[in-house]
Amino acid sequence: MSEPRPASATAFRQAMRRVPTGVTVVTSLKDGEPRGITVNAFASVSVDPPSLLICVNREARSYLFISSSRIFCVNVLAGDQRLLAEHFSGKVRERQFAEIDYAIDATGAPVLGGTIAHFDCALSHEYQVGSHSILVGRVLSCSARPGSPLGYFNGGFHDFGIHVD
Ligand SMILES: Cc1cc2nc3c(=O)[nH]c(=O)nc-3n(C[C@H](O)[C@H](O)[C@H](O)COP(=O)(O)O)c2cc1C
Questions:
Q1: First CA to last CA across the chain, in angstroms?
Q2: pTM here?
Q3: N or C: which terminus of the chain carries fewer CB neighbours within 10 A?
Q4: Which domain holds residue 116?
Q5: What does DSSP assign to residue 26?
């Protein structure tokens, strides 16, 4: 029996524009060089062991960093960090962290300042699906801070305006 025909790329993209998400910057570190990528394909997977997933295009520079170092940190952006989301989706080739405030936690991947949460992870599984890989991370350290999240909806950034302490 033949495979059922998939939806068109246009229909898929249009429907996905109606899905509101948070916005993260996923950082990594390889040979002492930090790298980051804006990612909104992010979800919790399991509490025991604490695990999450991100989906990353295998053509992205960050994919090489994460798959070879096997570490990454998911930084959840605050409503006033839209410029960071644009910076890390902007194909900057070198010195991507030249003007960026960050600290280090468990893995050595950058923990960005001013974010509302971070999850520092060791890569535990990878599943290739089309152009992207689903990367599952075992969370080694994480924290939550007060603030309002940055959101992405209908192709644009929005401050969700929901402040939590
Ligand atoms: C709001 C937003 C969400 C994004 N989410 C993802 C994502 O989940 N996975 C991904 O691979 N790229 C995502 N991108 C695209 C990457 O951020 C972009 O392609 C980046 O330039 C890749 O950088 P690199 O090739 O330097 O690693 C997103 C971009 C934006 C603006």
A1: 55
A2: 0.97
A3: N
A4: 21-148
A5: E
Distance from the CA of 25 to the center of ligand 1, in angstroms? 9
44-73, pLDDT tens digit by residue?
A: 999 999 999 999 999 999 999 999 999 999
Q: What is the domain count for the chain?
A: 1
| 38 within a domain of the structure (yes/no) | yes
Which tokens in the block code for residue 95? 């010195």
Please choose, from the candidates 81, 84, 82, 79, the residue with its C-alpha nearest in 3D space to the C-alpha of residue 97: 84
Which ligand 1 atom is the nearest neighbour of the CA of 92? 26
Query: How many residues in the chain?
Result: 165
13, 26, 40: residue to mutate for ligand 1 pocket, most atoms within 8 A of CB = 40
Whether residue 39 is contained in a domain is answered as yes
Q: What is the Cα–Cα distance from 97 to 94, expressed in whole angstroms?
A: 8
At residue 1 the predicted structure's pLDDT band, cuts being 50, 70 and 90, is low
* Nearest atom in ligand 1 to 85's CA: 31
With respect to residue 160, please indicate whether it lies within any of the assigned structural domains.
no
CATH number of the domain encompassing residue 71: 2.30.110.10
